[in-house]
Amino acid sequence: MASESDLHDHHTGVRSAYKHVVRRNPYEPEFQQAVLEVLDNLSPALTRHPEYDDQRILQRLCEPERQVMFRVPWRDDNGNVHVNRGFRVQFNSALGPYKGGLRFHPSVNLGVIKFLGFEQIFKNALTGMSIGGAKGGSDFDPKGRSDNEIERFCQSFMTELHQHLGEHTDVPAGDIGVGAREIGYMFGQYRRLANRWEAGVMTGKGLDWGGSRVRTEATGYGTVLFTQRMLERNGKDLDGRRVVVSGAGNVALYSIERAQQLGANVVACSDSNGYVVDDKGLDLDLLKQVKEVERAGIDVYAERRGQSAHYVRGAGVWEVPCDVALPSATQNELDAKAARTLIDNGVIAVAEGANMPTTPEATSLLRRAGVLFGPGKAANAGGVATSVLEMRQNARRTSWSFDHAEQELAETMAGIHDRCEEAAERYGCPGDYVLGANVAGFERVGNAMLAQGLV
Ligand code: GLU
């Protein structure tokens, strides 16, 4: 768990804000960690702009504007009733309507949703677009549930949530455990309850009913585009590099796809039970068939792929030697031990496809070893940015081609990269994307909060 002694920053405003967060949010280690990671980089900005401290911008930022917690009752296929807990934390709307995904996973609790919502504020600010930060979800476990059970759960969840949403108020999307199928059931229930065909109220919709091309691919593609730009700034690129990706969900699959398109050899990915190494390079069509169509584990991939692949149960994917590592599964999946292994194996770049996948200790080891490090709030912002592209198409009742949407994503990722780079340089730490992302995101939200008075 993070504690006050982990704070390297000696700015008094930062220290007192963090102390306050720890005292007011006990038993929420992930939230405390996410706050620590941002605040720890802010003292140069606060020293330069005392008005942030005068107006208590840090304290205001760390307190969600609104938090909704609710009961989600649903009936399984055998007629048994279950009760889950639903959440929506509407963290900050200084830059636009609340925006952020919904996560369905047994590990979800209020602290996890608050950490994700807090991250989302800065991520969304970094896109340069007009969106605030939020996150939601439930401790519901979709694993092994039938399609009918998923439908009933989603309808019950939205029966409560719908009254808190709206295209100008709060616009959810997917996250872990929530993909196109779940968005469909929730959008359907919203439409019925609100009596409005309000496309802009959710993103990640199907292509036939208001969705955007490239939204499915966007988080993974964006992470790789960000990585490529970081490498290019250092006279390198992805062509011919050995890449390891953790996870085998939406972010991982489309990171693999884009990295392969750029000439990388992606040799490993993982799921909650183990990892697969494939020295010839992963066969993406087979992987998609197993994960997206059959919803099976990657051990099935290894079985079908034959000789070049082998499956390792239980162990960590970071022991596979690589040049580039893309943690794309979940929070705190890359710890100090894994970071040391990656460094010993000569890793040159790490970019976070997931939200906060690297522990604070691992992040500082990688940064100190001179590894290029793309923090999640910048590297994986392509997903939410493409959600805004979807909202733009909805508002104009139009639909773009794949090429057009992909071009917009590429320009957005370049902008995010350059905003981090520029802020890092301005504060005397060139190449430090962690500092750059936190400061650039903070300045944009902080300035909007200052301009809008005490809200
Ligand atoms: N859940 C995604 C994220 O972590 C996407 C959010 C969205 O599109 O609103 O950024």
Describe how the helices and strands are arranged.
Elements: H1 12-24, H2 29-39, H3 43-48, H4 50-54, H5 57-61, E1 66-75, E2 81-92, E3 98-104, H6 110-126, E4 133-138, H7 147-161, E5 170-173, H8 180-194, H9 215-233, E6 242-246, H10 250-261, E7 265-271, E8 274-278, H11 284-293, H12 298-305, E9 309-313, E10 324-327, H13 336-344, E11 349-351, H14 360-368, E12 372-374, H15 376-379, H16 382-395, H17 402-426, H18 433-451
Helix pairs in contact: 1-2, 2-6, 6-18, 7-8, 9-10, 9-16, 9-17, 11-12, 13-14, 16-17, 17-18
The site of glutamic acid has 10 residues, from strand 3 and helix 16.
Brief summary of the model shown:
This protein is α/β, with parallel strands linked by helices. Helices cover 47% and strands 16% of the residues. The protein has three domains: 4-61, no CATH class; 66-201, Rossmann fold; 218-379, NAD(P)-binding Rossmann-like Domain (Rossmann fold).
Structural description of this entry:
The protein has 455 residues and is α/β, with parallel strands linked by helices. The protein folds into 3 domains: 4-61, no CATH class; 66-201, Leucine Dehydrogenase, chain A, domain 1 (Rossmann fold), CATH 3.40.50; 218-379, 3-Layer(aba) Sandwich (Rossmann fold). It has 18 helices and 12 strands. The strands form 2 sheets. A 7-stranded mixed beta sheet has the order 9-8-7-6-10-11-12, with helices on both faces. Strands 1-2-4-3-5 form a 5-stranded mixed beta sheet. The protein binds glutamic acid (GLU). Glutamic acid is lined by residues 99-101, 173, 175, 203, 355, 383-384, 387.
